[in-house]
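Suppose a colleague, Dr. K., hands you the sequence of a protein chain of 147 amino acids and asks what its three-dimensional shape might be. Before reaching for any lab equipment, you can write down a predicted structure in token form. Begin with the sequence itself:
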Amino acid sequence: MKEATVGNWMTVEPLAVTPNETLLVAHERMQEANIRHLPVIDDWVSRWVVGLITLGLIRQAELEVAAMYRGSELRPLVSQSKTVGELLATDPITIAPDEPLAEAARLMLAHKLTALPVTDDDNQLLGIITESDIFGYLIETQTPERS
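The predicted structure, expressed as tokens, is then:
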């Protein structure tokens, strides 16, 4: 059985986006991979984590602009013109791979997050831990054996 550390339960080398990519690119990347979170990295060389973009944030941005203009036909225009960087808060919350899974869950609950980028000591992206990963751990370790 895998130890209950973030590194043992995270998704390694997750898909990511940079701040200058459009919301449309981020949304399409999420749809293709059937995921709801993308770490945001400064560039593809250093892969330094600057934030996390979620499907919920993208949809909220689309709805806010559409509501201003009272028309959903603007939704594609919003996704094509707004960048990921425009939605990011500064100072993202990350976690190290050697932290206990319980610490990831605590951080997610305390900050109302559904995922955390996993980084090394230099803030370089190593993976992502999601609420689904934590649920997977619970199912694998807490479900009684059936005979």
